[in-house]
Structure formats: structure tokens, C-alpha cells
Amino acid sequence: MAEALVSALLQQLKTIIYEEGKREVKLVTGVGKEIKRLEENLESIQALLDDAEERQMKDKSIKIWLERLKEVSYDMEDVLDEWNTALLKSQLYEADQNIFSLFVGKVCHLCLSCFCCGQVVHRRGIALKIKDINERLDEIAKAKDRYQLTSREVRQPRRVESTSFTEESKLHGRDEVKKDLVDSLLCGNSDERENDVRTISIVGMGGIGKTSLAQLVYNDETVMAHFNKKIWVCVSEVFDLSKVAKAIIIGLAEPKKDSKQIDPDSAPLQNLLEEICKSIEGKKFFLVLDDVWTDGSESWESLNQAFKHAAPGSRILVTTRKDTVADTMKSFRVFHLEQLSEDVCWKILCQEAFVGRGEEQCKNFEDIGKNIAKECSGLPLAAKTIGCMLRFKKTKEEWTIILNSEIWKLELEGIFAPLLLSYLDLPSAVRRCFSYCSTFRKGVKIGRKSLIRQWMAQGYLNFSENPEMEIVGDEYFDCLVARSFFQDFLKLEDGSIRGSWESFNQAFKPAAPGSRILVTTRNDRVAMTMKSFRDFPLEQLSENVCWKILNQEAFVGWGDEQCKNLEDIGKNIAKKCSGLPLAAKTLGSMLRSKKTREGWTNILNSEIWELDLEAVFAPLLLSYFDLPSAVRRCFLYCSTFPKGIEINRDVLIYQWMAQGYLNSSQNPEMEITGVDYFECLAARSFFQDFQKLEDGSIRACRIHDIVLDFARFLMGDGEFVVKEVHPEDNLRIKLSSEKTHHLLVILAENAGLPTSLVGAEKLQSLSIFGSDYAVGGETGNSLIQPKHLRSLIVCGVKIEGLPEEVGKLMHLKLLDLSGSQLGRLPKAICRLFNLQSLILRKCSLKRLPDGIEKLVNLRYLDTTDCFLLTYCPKGIGRLTSLRELVGIVVSCDHNDDKEFSLGDLENLCHLRILALIVERQQIDANEVRRATLQSKIHLKKLNLDGPWKSRTEEDYVINVLSPPSHTNVTFSGNFYLRSLKQLVFVSLKLR
Q1: Residue 889: is its pLDDT beyond 50?
Q2: Looking at the structure, do residues 830 and 953 belong to the same domain, yes or no?
């Protein structure tokens, strides 16, 4: 992560100096020398950082040295942001003065002189800060020599083959367990009472494959035919009864049924449980509760009452890491998953590592691969992760490096060593994006766009070679996907639960006999708590299976001869996967980029395998270190996401952009860089659970909770903090570490917003997520206390308003207030000159503020489902950096010189997604024609929603607009499509 920070700083510094020179601004005396010294220091350190990041795992003094460097780098980021903001203010002021001078003449020169004096004072302050940082950096640069660090080539993320995102359909080493589990679900006993809903538990350590087994059983054809209803709920760390009840109701919902069915979003808990009782009465259901941690017997008993009217034969399947959960749930059968054999781990590793490679090529890597599979500790997650990483390793030398990595020797939790290997194999920028994912709650659904936007907000995607940060974010996201850091499980959105398991269980009493609940968990106690009638403990995979998984990932597109040449090394690598499919898949994904025996041998012989890490962490660490530093940074940012959340790819890229992670000098479109980094992480299996759009591109993903644990492990103590707020808690949040840069606040039912944040001066991202019943309230100054925020997310929390002081957050690049029911935006929001993403979905806004044209860096404006919105200012048409404009109200005439109209789209040349709500007014043909959509060559999607008076009027407007032939068009309302001669794609929704 340090390498990515330094790289981003150097690029940002060069960009600002270029802008200063272009505008012929003279630097304050002495600053030129300080900047030169700063550049030299950063460049002398940069080349050594890959070696330092890997060696810090064993050398505490190097770890401390890197921490000092990171702190200085964060402070430098703030100074450069301040400098850049001063530049923007100067440009905006001069533009205003040029207009003003036409009317007031000489008075303008006096105003401009006063402004310039203020700018000189401000620049002098920046100069002093740069000098102070240089003095600190001098000490760090001198200290580097004592560690004898070696220089390494800075790697760039590789674009990923489309075949790397194939859906997983095989579960190695669990055939007998699966058959036994299915039999337990389908077979009833003579002593089974009419209202008896039996629970089965799958118990095993993290990364052992509990969820994968449960998913395979859940989608089994015989299981699907046996039960009337199937529901999947991701429970994760917190047992929120209201949320799990809501998830079950959504899963039970039938289209076009009784319109009096309750709204799960607003109904109280008792009504939710009653609705479950009514919905499953006489029906045989199968419920899977995945990843259960809470083992409170009262909770389970209360929930169980909701199932009392279900049909006999209904089942609940629980996955957990704790035996106590299985006990508490009174499981009638518990399946303890053991670690997989080295052979199975090898199969999994092969499956991931050798995707597209020939048989001969696979055999060539088998010896090393099997040794790597042995390091996977029988964990399928480890084998999968290592396999995904090895997919990028094309030589035996590269595989050998993984096998011999010292990471395997670290004292880590079993799964962490493979994850750490895969993580270290990422580019540093992707690592940082992944680490940010640690801020998400376990089990939470992460929208792909949302995640990318958060990366953007953190500035992780600011690479000037590619100004399209979203594309950069996409690439980072896909990179993590390919590394198996994200996953694709069949879970209901926001399926985490809190509260009483026993109360919840009662909702299933009316279900038909034979209904089943399948639970996945790391805890044996979960299976007991849920009274599982059968537990399936998952064993670690064999080395051969790990090798198959690794093989499948690593050899994508390779010839048979090339695969055979690496098979010996690959099998040795698979042995290091500890029987974990995730480790094998991750390593396979990484080895895919290693084309020589030397590369594979380096993996096999990596010292990472010697580290005392959790079994899956060594493969992850190998894969992580194999990433370019820029991609590593993006990966680390993923640590800021709650576990289990669905991560929207584009939003993730936006967040990387906000953090400055995509400022590449090779591609000025940050979005393109972001897509590259996303695909890089996806290819390494750091991401999973992909939701895809009609065109096959990834919309969203999830991160395996083990991978998220790994990202948080890498992020280090104190840098990322999670705080849960309950109604009885003090609303004053105090951070104990000055190093905290990312804060995730989770509001429980009936909890209010924090009133103050203490010790939050260095926060760069603040995310507040509310439950369905979080009360929120007045925000006060708590949200604007951290002056260096780059990303501010307040979602699902009812807030009354934002203070005017929000305009002081000059570093802010992403502001997401979705679901906050906010009724008004303060005018001060127009002073956020660095803002890139403004997301206001499901708010109660009636108008957007005048002056919005000052948000010159805004790339995303989204007011989807703001049903009260009636006024959008004309200044939107001056936001020439816009890439997505969604949910905006627009008129078809030019009668109001303040209101946004179709013609104001004229200068928005970078638009990629456009969704407009067209008001029913008199149509001005010239105004519609002025939109010039046919010239918007980047426009991929167009949505038009609005009432039309007649078919003739509709045809007329569509013909005049004339979007590009490649544009995917969606129409809402009474549209007729006969005039669209070159229509490529249309989506129609019936109401």
C-alpha cells in the first residue's frame, strides 16, 4: 500500500506543477527547491517498497518504517489536495471575473487584486507545510539504507481474459458429504412431528467450503423439486432478527398475489413474524442460514415459533464456524467439515490456475503446484485463491517463488497465508482498493458501481493516463474477482440478522412438512443453537483436488505442452493450500500470469509459506504481493466494506477515484484504469458472487469474509475501525488511534446518528449504514468534523439536514446520502470543488441547488427514485466532466431560463449513462435538437421516462433526439419504437 501511496503522490505532484506552469503561476520563493527535494525523496523510496512490504511480515522494524512513511504520505495527500483546490478556486474566480468585468469595469481589477493577495498568503501556507513534510521524509529516506532493501520493477495490472469469470459449478472433495446432506434434507423420519422443523448444521473453520457446499445443495435439482419454498439468508456476525425476517418474506414473496401483503421495509418485527407464519403455512420449506455466529438459545427459540405451522419435512440448514451454534439450534444432525486432502486442494488449485491451458502445460507445473497445494492446509478457499493467483504465473520459476515464499512460515490463521500471498501478488493500487473493502459489514451486499465510486472518493483511481476512473475501478474490481477475493453466493440482499433466533424460527412453524433450512457456519455452536438435525463438517480438500482447482485457474488459454511443463511445480504449490479451495483458486489466478517455470518456482519457494499465518492467508498473501502496487492499494480499500455486502463495481471505482488511487500517468481516464484494476482483482479471485448486466459485464460482487478478514489484517491495527451504535449507547464516538483513516459506523435498530467524533482528524472515509429502523436525526457537526474526508456515505439513515459547514470539506470527492430521506441540500454543497460523485437516491429532495455548476469535477449525479424532485437548475449543463446523469428532471422547451432543459445536454460530451425524467410540456423542436445526442459517441445507455400526449409527438421527439446506434435505450411511459431504425437494445418494464 505504501508503494501505491508514493506513486499516487508523485503523479499528483507532477499534475499540479503542470497546471501551475500552464497558467503561468509563479511559485512562492523556495518552494521550487522543496518540491524538487520532495520528488527525489519519493522516487528514491518508491523502487524499494515492494520488497519492504513483503519483508515487513517478518521484520517489525521495516513494518514501523512503512507506517511512518504511510503517515507522511497521507499528510502529503492532504497538502496536495489543498493545493489543487486553491487552483480550482482561482480558475473559477477568474472565470466569474471575466463575465463580471463586462459590467463593472475597473472595480473588477480591484477585486481580482484582493483575491490574488489572498492566494499568495494561502500558497505561502502550503509551502510551509511542504517544507515540514520534506524534513520528515528526509529522516525516513535516510533510514531506508539500514534495511538493505532491493529495488523491484513497478508492475502494471494485466487485463484479464473474459473466461476468468466463469461460474463455479464443481465442489471438489465433498461428493460424499453432499450426497449425505441431500439425503438428510429429503428423508423424513417416522418420529417427525407435524410442526417439527428440523435443523441441520454444517460446521467448519473459515475457508473450508461451508457456504459452497450449502449453495451446491441449495441448487440441487432433487432439493429444488422436493420443497415448495427455498430461502437463502446471509446471517454473518450480527443476528438482526428484523432483517432476517424481512429477507425471508422477500424470499417467500409471490408475484401478483394478495396486494394486502405487508411491506417488509416498514412493518414492525411482530408483523414480520406473523407474515412468515402465514406465508409458509402448510408448505414444505427449505431455509439456509449462512455464516451464523450468534449462539443465543433464546433467540433461536423465539424464531423457531414462526415455523410452527409449516408442513412436516421442512428443514433449516445452518453453516457456522462454532459448534455451540449447532448445539443451541438443537441440530438433529451436524456435519463437521474437515480439511481437504492435499490431492483435493491440488485439484481446486488446478481448476483455477490452469484455465485455458493445455494438458501438457499443466503437467509441467504439477510438481510445484502440488507442493503449493500442500500449503493450503486443506482449505478450499486457500487452494482457490492460490490457483487464481497462479493463473497469472506462466513459468515454473514464478510458481517456485510462490512455493518458497516466507509467507507460509508466518504464524497466521490457516487461511491467511494463501490470501496474503495472493494479496501481495496484486498491484499496489488494487491492494489498496481491496483493503478498503474491510470497511464493509460481513455478509453485506456490495454493489459494483457503489464500491468503485467509494474507491474514487478515496482517490484510489486517480491516474491521469486514464481520466475515466470508472474504467480503472472496473479493472481493479475485475482483478479482485479473478483472485477470488469477491464471491458469488445465492444470498438475499442485506441478509444479515440481529436478535432472537428462536423468535425468528417461529415464523416457519406453518410451513409444509419437509421444509428445510440449510445453515453454513464456522462455529459448531451455531449448528447446535439452530438445533440442526444433521451437521456436515467440511474437511480440507486433498492436494490433488487443490491442484485441480489451481490448474483450472492458472492455465486459462495455455497449450497442453505449456501446462505439462509446469505441472510438477503446480502440484507442489497446491500442497501448500492446506486443503482450502479458496487458497487453490487464488493461487491459480495468480499463476495465470506467470509464464515461466522460474516464476512458478518463485511462488513455490516463497518465504511467505514459512510465515505463521492462518492457512488460507499464505496463498492470499502471495497473490497480493504479486499484484502491481496500485492494485494492492485498491484491494486494501475493500477492507472498509461490511462483510457480506454486495459491492457495486462502479461505486467501488468511484471510491477508488475519491481516494486518489487511479491517478495513472498512462491513462488519463480514471474510469478505464479502475475497470482494469477491478478486473485484475477479479481475475485473482479476490472478488466473487458476480451480478452481471445484459451485456455480460459485472455489475456487482461480494468479498468472501475470509478475504475481507485478510484485507483487514493487511490494513493493520487502527487504520480501519468499525463502530456499532445501539440505542442505549453514548452517541459520542472516540477513536483511540491517530492512525485511523477509515471509519465504518453501523446503526442498530432505533439507534441515532453520532453527535460527535473524537480523534477523527485524519479520517479519509466515513461510512454510516443504518438498519431499517435506525432513527437518524439531525446531523449537527459530527459529519463535518473530519476535515480531510474524501468519502462520506450516509445510507439508510433518516437525517433532517446537512449543516452549511459541509462546504468546508474541501477534500471531499464522494458524497452518498442514499435512502436518507433528506429534503434539502445546503447551498454550501456547491463549494465542494473536488466532488466527483453525488449520489442522492431515494431522498425527499424537491430541488437541486442553484450554483451546482461550480462542481466542475463532478462525474456522477444520481437522483434515482427522488419522487418529489421537480426542479433541476440549468447549471447542470455546465458540468462538462459528467459521465453519468441519472434521475434528472428535464423540460422539452426553453421557456424557463433557470430550469434544466434537453438543449442543455449540448456540451456534456463525456456522457456514458443518461436517465432523464421528461416533463410534459410544450415541445420546442430546436431545444430538443440542441441536445445533439447523436454526437455523444460515448453514450452507452439512455433512459427516457415521461408522459406523452400522442404517438405523433413521441415519434417526433425520438427522431429529433437521434441517439447513437450503439446506445442501449430504455423507455418508460407510452413510447412507440417504430422510428428507431438502428435500435440495438431495448428494455421494457410493465407496470
Answers
A1: yes
A2: no
Supply the CATH number for residue 309's domain: 3.40.50
- Which residues is 862 bridged to in the sheet? 839, 886
319 neighbors 520 (Cβ within 8 angstroms): yes
Nearest to 464 by CA among 679, 676, 678, 660: 660
**DSSP line for 336-379:** EEEPPPHHHHHHHHHHHHTTB--HHHHHBBHHHHHHHHHTTTT-
pLDDT of residue 201: 94
Please give the torsion angle defined by the CA atoms of residues 451, 13, 783 and 733, in that order, rounded to the nearest 10 degrees: 90
Same-domain status, 842 and 762: yes
pLDDT of the residue at 166? 31
Is the domain of 182 the same as that of 322? Answer: yes
CA distance 55 to 299: 46
Give CA–CA dist 374/371, Å, rounded: 5
Q: Does residue 215 sit in the same domain as residue 271? A: yes
923 and 964 share a domain?
Answer: yes
Is a pLDDT exceeding 70 seen at residue 398?
yes
Residue 371 CA to residue 573 CA, distance in Å, equals: 4
Among residues 130, 147, 164, the one where a domain terminates is 147
Name residue 414's amino acid: G
Average pLDDT over residues 867-887: 92
Percent helix, percent strand, percent coil in the chain, to nearest 5: 45, 20, 35
- Specify if 526 maps to a domain: yes
Q: Residue 193 region, left (φ>0) first, then alpha (ψ -120 to 50), else beta?
A: beta
Whether residues 809 and 899 fall in one domain: no
- Residue 449 belongs to some domain of the structure: no
635 in any annotated domain: no
Strands (E), 453-555: 486-487, 497-498, 511-521, 523, 532-535, 538-539
Do residues 142 and 228 both lie within one domain? no
For residue 96, give every residue at least 6 positions away whose Cβ sits within 8 Å of its Cβ, in sequence order, or none. Answer: none
Q: Which positions ≥6 away from 890 have C-beta within 8 Å?
A: 872, 900, 901, 902, 904, 916, 917, 918, 919
Last residue of a domain, one of 98, 132, 147: 147
Q: Give 96's pLDDT tier (boundaries 50, 70, 90).
A: low
Could you give the C-alpha distances from 307 to 232, 264, 612, 733, 739, in angstroms and in order? Answer: 16, 18, 45, 40, 48
Q: How many domains are there within the chain?
A: 4
For the record, the C-alpha cell of 622 comes out as 502471495
Instruction: Tell whether the model's pLDDT for residue 431 goes beyond 70.
Output: yes
Are 842 and 878 within one domain? no
* Residue 267 belongs to some domain of the structure: yes
SS3 918: strand
b/e burial code for range 440-464 (CB count within 10 A of at least 16 → b): bbbbbbbbbbbbbbbbbbbbbbbbb
**Model confidence over 631-670: pLDDT tens digits?**
988 999 898 887 888 888 988 998 898 888 887 655 667 8
> Domain of 113?
2-147
